[in-house]
Fold:
Amino acid sequence: MIEIRNVTKAFGGTRAVSDCSISLEGLTITGLIGPNGSGKTTLFNLITGLLKPDSGEIRFLGKRIDGRLPHEMARLGLIRTFQLSRVFPRMTVLENMLLAPQGQTGERLLSLWFRLPRIRNEESDNRERAFELLDLLGLMRLHDQFAENLSYGQQKLLELGRALMAKPRMILLDEPTAGINPTLIRTMIEMILKMRDRGQVFFIIEHNMDVVIEVCEKVFVLDHGEKIAEGRPEEIQRDPRVIEAYLGC
Amino acid sequence: MDLLLHLAVVVAIYSIFALSLNVEIGYTGLFNFGHVAFFAIGAYTSALLTLSGAPFAVGLLAGLAAAGVCGYLLSIPALKLQGDYFGIATLGFGEILRMVVSNEVWLTKGPMGLPGIPRPEILGFIFDTLPAYLALSACMALTTFAILAFVVLSPFGRALKAVRDDETAAEILGKNALRFKIKSFVIGSTFAGLAGVLWAHYTTFISPGDFTLTETILVLLIVVMGGKGTLPGPVLGAVALIFFQESVRFLRLPPEWTRLLGPLQQMVFGLLLVVLMVFRPEGIIRERGGRHGD
Structure:
């Protein structure tokens, strides 16, 4: 689905991502691991249009997407979450969810005045779906709270729910279980697996190897911006280059 | 009684002015420090047209259009700037516009101002008495309130709030932040133009001195004190501030007292502002979960 070919991105003299090629063809949940500073988030930023690659190309469903603007990526069906959750703090949980669906008629200023019945229908459909997801995420009773009142873990769950509301082709999760308590990690994993069974495709940056082994079909390993290994999670764990990258030298 | 009616008219006009700014500041997070410029554009456009014989309706619509178009033209370069820099650009625009109005004497008569602006006439009825003008401006204020409420409570308004809270996250969710900000700015500017039109035809005399930074600050205070990002906030703020500013006039005091009271009032006002910002920074009305929450 995503095809990354020889992508390089440098900040000053440092190559954050160096001649990296990754293909996510036919995979449902793919992991991206690597030590801190190995270029994982930079790669996500390149895919989602927050950064432009210096060279190389990125294709999504066959179309070149590198260098496009972030809001175009969402339209193409690519949604991400952030390492430090970025919910909209002064909007309610439900509003956060309702914002995500793409191509809403009610977001066009002129349509507001002429297509009210259609907007009402869209809103009530979206609302129904939002409540279903909030229920699965255990956030139902918080739906009318400002998102800033949620705990950090709950915010990360909300971010996942918001991404799902957009019905994207692929969701990129940047460390979905970092910094949240074990109960919420369980909720997060179960949600990801449940959505995979419904056909949702994920690309996940994750540090917690237990989570990687449980959910990922295939894993790519980055170190100093280079891809050093790829394979099934169990194989990766035994790969000497990976062990070296993690234990340092 | 006349004083009360006069204050009510001023409150209605400033409510429109504040409601329009609230769309930008409260719902989109655009700190516009040149909002008075669009008030002035509306006022001058309508005044010049009606003085040269056009009917009020034409002046009104032209005033709205001129303010909206100028808002659009300013927003394209200014909204490329972020946060404080955007604020400074709008501040600059406000000052430049006032300079233009003061100096283009052939058009605006410069500092002399435009006297004798006709009272509005709609379908043969002339709004030349205080109660009539109050009815007109109250109607306009209610219409503005209804339109802006409809807009900010819609999915469009929800997207504005998302851009306000976190522009990058909104972009990642497929919202073209720049487009939403431009639209918000044009809406705000257009309704500021409406307030300006009503002001010009109420006072019947306008000059560049009416459109200084002080006006922008006053309307900013109204929005922030009333509660930005809420619907009733700006209206409540307008009532509170206008009445407070004029309150001295209600007390029939000997002249030597009022000489002291003037400055004293400003001090009390400043003190009240500090107290309010310390104990209730969100303003009189607090922003709460939207109606989407039920």
